[in-house]
Design brief:
Layout lengths: L9 E5 L2 H4 L12 H6 L21 H11 L3 E5 L2 H4 L11 H16 L3 E7 L5 H7 L5 H19 L5 E6 L1 H9 L13 H23 L1 H4 L2 E7 L2 E4 L4 H23 L5 H7 L8 H7 L6 E4 L3 E6 L9 E4 L10 E2 L6 E2 L1 H15 L3 E5 L12 H4 L3 H19 L5 E6 L19 E4 L4 E4 L1 H13 L3
Helix pairs in contact: 7-9, 8-9, 9-13, 14-16, 16-17
The chain binds ligand GBH.
Length: 461
């Protein structure tokens, strides 16, 4: 008999507003920091931007049809803050057209048997708030404005949306946005990103408090956060490298997850960063602690960890995919940071359950086939390397759930369509559906069929 996932298991695809919507100035939307960033020469690999992307603000009906045919029972997408409140702030106007748009979209998903899972913040801060007071750097202002935006979404959509995610990947927002400068707003340095990360946690926590105090009882939903982590395997058995792998997890994940699920920063992070890691006030930490009903996990790969290097952000850990014998850990993809390695996924799921004791939703997982962007569509649809990836990762998921007893409640593949892959532009394709960006024609790849069949076969009826 085939092992099964429970009948209420959620599976589907994940997307983000700026990566798919396009229509930057339609129906009252104002720019976000990603409009500004992607229009700054030199920031995006192929000099592209999200002005059109997959044109999903207009073609949303097509997207829903594609999702429905995929067999997905749920869809994780994000709402664009600068559509809902174009100037962003708590004193600024709410945009009725955008409320109407997302309302109809959500209703149509539900009519088609697809459960909406909403991310409130997937990186597209209203530019107006960045200009007005420094955006995520300004705790006093941003926390109140974020809570106001979140509350607006709960109020207008909470009768239909029962699963909320506050932020997507605070590590990326803070480190890539305010330390390396690879992402919007493109700041570089060693100080700001610790402050931004801290403020993201507090904004998340107060939005969750607002939901719990004002909406949860009547609306009956759940709310949490999505964190990203690559599983870390020690490069070899040496005690330094074993410690390095643990430290890498503390710096990447623990510094967000520990305050939320345990009520304090990891000691190893506090010891290394000292005063530059802002302290929580007593009130703040009491709100942060316990502020997620589940564990939202984005994970794509596994890395080998080695003591050394001078990157403080990584906890002075070096990462590599090259094993001591010179071979690669997994199978290569289009991007240097991602190799296929399913056993690491299973280990990570076990680690998260043992450490944080919360049901897990895998809110993103996916693979870009090497060189896919230079192939003709007839070849692209035969995406065997992506099928191979999903075969491995779904098998690891099933084993973690059934053999190891990890309560995994959902799985969202990234992504239903090729889309705007941030600083990589359109060069990196993560979709199970090919998008011809010149015509917007969508063509499902073999991986689309694979996931459809796999979940049909492995969810109990
Ligand atoms: C997710 O980020 C995002 O949530 C999603 O929007 C995105 O499209 C998807 O993954 C695919 O990338 O600076 O060396 O870390 C995943 C985390 C952030 C990992 C950017 C790779 C760049 C290399 N990714 N990061 S590095």
């Amino acid at each position: 008999m085939t092992a099964k996932l429970p009948s209420d298991f959620l599976w589907g695809y994940a997307t983000a507003s700026y990566q798919i919507e396009g229509s930057p100035d339609v129906q009252g939307r104002s720019p976000s920091i990603w409009d500004t960033f992607s229009h700054t020469p030199g920031k995006i690999k192929d000099n592209s931007n999200g002005d059109v992307a997959t044109d999903s603000y207009r073609r949303w009906g097509e997207d829903i049809a594609l999702l429905k045919l995929s067999g997905a029972n749920s869809y994780r997408f994000s709402i664009s803050w600068s559509r809902i409140i174009p100037q962003g702030g708590r004193g600024d106007l709410i945009n009725a057209d955008a409320i109407e748009h997302y309302g109809v979209f959500i209703q149509t998903l539900r009519k088609n048997g697809i459960k909406p899972i909403v991310t409130l913040y997937h990186w597209d801060l209203p530019q107006a708030l960045h200009d007005r007071y420094g955006g995520w750097l300004n705790k006093e202002e941003i926390v109140q404005d974020y809570v106001n935006y979140a509350r607006t979404c709960f109020r207008y959509f909470g009768d239909q949306v029962k699963d909320w995610i506050t932020h997507n990947e605070p590590w990326c927002i803070s480190v890539l946005g305010y330390a390396t400068g690879a992402f919007a707003p493109g700041h570089k340095g060693d100080t700001e990103h610790w402050i931004v990360a801290h403020n993201l946690l507090i904004a998340h926590a107060y939005a969750v408090k607002a939901y719990r105090d004002e909406f949860q009882a009547s609306q009956g939903g759940q709310i949490g956060i999505t964190l990203d982590c690559s599983w870390q395997i020690p490069y070899d058995d040496s005690p330094e490298n074993v410690a390095a792998a643990q430290r890498a997890i503390a710096f990447k994940l623990g510094r967000f997850a520990d305050p939320i699920y345990k009520g304090h920063y990891p000691k190893v992070v506090k010891d290394m960063i000292g005063d530059r890691l802002p302290d929580f006030t007593e009130e703040e930490i009491s709100v942060v602690k316990g502020s997620s009903d589940f564990f939202g996990l984005n994970t794509y790969t596994t890395q080998l960890a080695m003591e050394g290097g001078d990157s403080e952000i990584q906890g002075n850990v070096k990462n590599t995919f090259t094993k001591p014998d010179g071979t690669q850990l997994g199978k290569e993809s289009h991007v240097s940071w991602l190799q296929t390695y399913p056993p690491g996924f299973r280990s990570l799921l076990n680690y998260l359950w043992e450490t944080y004791k919360k049901p897990i939703y895998v809110t993103e997982n996916g693979f870009p086939v090497k060189g896919e962007n230079s192939l003709p569509v007839e070849k692209v649809v035969n995406d065997t390397a992506r099928v191979d990836y999903y075969e491995g990762y779904t098998d690891a998921l099933l084993r973690a759930a059934n053999e190891d007893g990890v309560p995994v409640k959902g799985y969202f593949a990234w992504s239903i369509l090729d889309n705007f892959e941030w600083a990589d532009g359109y060069d990196t394709r993560f979709g199970v559906t090919y998008v011809d960006f010149a015509t917007q024609r969508r063509t499902p790849k073999a991986s689309y069929d694979f996931l459809k069949k796999w979940f049909a076969d492995h969810i109990a009826t």
